[in-house]
Amino acid sequence: MSTNENDGKVVYIDLKPYIMRVVKGWKTILLWALGGALLGIVIGLSKPKTFTATAVVAPEITTRSSVGGLNTLASLAGVNVNSLALTDAMHPELYPTIIGSDDFCIGLFDMPVSFAKGKETVDTNLYDYIANYTRTPWYAYVIGLPRIAVNAVKGLFSKAGDQESEGCAVTDSLRLTKEQESVIKALSASIKATVEKKTYALVVKVTMQDRVIAAQVANAVGDNLRKFVTDYRIGKAQDNVDYFEKLYEQTNEEYLQAQRAYARYLDSNRGIQTSSAQVTRQLLQNDAQLKYQLFNSTAQNLMTARAKVQQETPVLVDIQRAKAPNNGKPSKVRLALLWMILAGIAGAVVVSLRK
After folding, report:
1. What is the dihedral of CA 164, 165, 171, 173, to 10 degrees?
2. Torsion of the alpha carbons at 152, 157, 163 and 168, rounded to the nearest 10
């Protein structure tokens, strides 16, 4: 029933004819449903099964102590004080962006993986696995035929010297080959990283066609992220350690030389009590003491710098290491049922509207 606003008349819609058409056309609807089920089976058989492994990492959060008293008021207002008071530029909310970057994906290329191919076990790296051993459904080739044709035409007019070298050895991320770009895109799409708003726990989900490789990559993402954040956090502190180590060696050598010069002078001028000898002895002793003070101060600074490195080293705890999943997607039965239901609904709509 509907109301016409212009004349205020009520228009009644009789659904009985449509329902009768659907009842009488049950054979047609059944054929549609069977066709949809058959299409779902074909898609399920042509689409390779994928497995998703999950790893959870908890990062260390560094905040300013001055905001501790505002936590209660901020929580009442729905504001996370920790996100506002972080003293570190490497915010946990940036971790998904880091993981999805090209440089991070390139760092996973040389990761060794092994998988079963028939009765044989193939040992290779992640790049080669994605580029040469992952399967693609047939309909992806049909959709990509125009692009393949365009690339083939371009290849006829390209010079031999313009051909790009393929492989996983990436020396410059600014000059990637087409194959390397496609592998990076595929790897980035297979990794999903999200951060919990309250706990900042990082959840990494990796989808691969091999269940063991999916778990290996998920764990490698956490390990590489830990190394990335560690290198950033301790970079400056480690530079200070390197500087004080060189200064320590230099002041130590200068102190030893001053001590030797003072000892040699005492040995060669034993028993001499002249004023000039006493002045020279005092000067050498003062120089040795000064060099010792410099050496001692440098040694203390070196210890402080090393302690700073330990203090700045971030803690990313593995809450859950990824395990090889047993269940993959898509489920051929569920896919067939879904297509059967959709096709049945479409058939019912067609039958009901048929005159």
Report:
1. 40
2. -30
Q: Angle, nearest 10°, between helix axes 26-46 and 16-24?
A: 70
CA distance 303 to 298: 9
> What is the pLDDT, as a whole number, of residue 70?
43
Residue 11, token pair as written in the block: 């228009």
Q: 219 near 321, Cβ under 8 Å?
A: yes
E strands, 263-315, are: none
CA 194 to CA 197: how far, in whole Å?
Answer: 9
Can you give the pLDDT at residue 11? 63
pLDDT digits (tens, 9 = 90+) for 111-138: 999 888 878 888 899 999 998 888 876 6
φ/ψ of residue 192, rounded to 5: -120, 120
pTM > 0.85: no
Please, are residues 310 and 256 in contact by the beta-carbon 8 Å criterion? Answer: no
User: At 151, is the secondary structure helix, strand, or coil?
Assistant: helix
Summarize pLDDT for 203-240 with one digit per residue, the tens.
999 999 889 999 999 999 999 988 888 887 777 788 88
Over residues 288-311, the mean pLDDT reads: 88
d(CA 136, CA 127): 16
Listed residue (232, 255, 251) closest to 243, CA to CA? 251
Angle at 52 between CA 219 and CA 220, to 5 degrees: 15
